[in-house]
Design brief:
- The protein has one domain (2-102).
- The protein is built from five helices and no strands.
- The protein has helices at 2-18, 22-33, 39-53, 65-76, 81-102.
- Residues 1-13 have low confidence and may be disordered.
Length: 103
Amino acid sequence: MIGYRLCMVDERLDTERALPGSELVEQGIADLEAGEVTIESLVVSIGAPRLRRLGFDVPPTLEDAEERLYLLLARDDPDAAHGRHHALVRRLVSFERAAESAS
């Protein structure tokens, strides 16, 4: 029985890693667990409610994630911040949709 459960867990992890944007979500969850404010942790904070509904164990999130993400991106490249912000959110949504379809 335990071997079966481990196979099911391994299979789910392999499926999740194959989803578009999985590296973004995986890193964001790790950064949140470490208490780090990064692009990835802010993106996961934005998507946390839906990710939790999909069964992901998302640690406590960062406040004002949308605004903080934009400001972090603008600090590095003000001209590209808007486009990068939308691209990251689209990647998150793509991951969430793919995860819904896979479950």
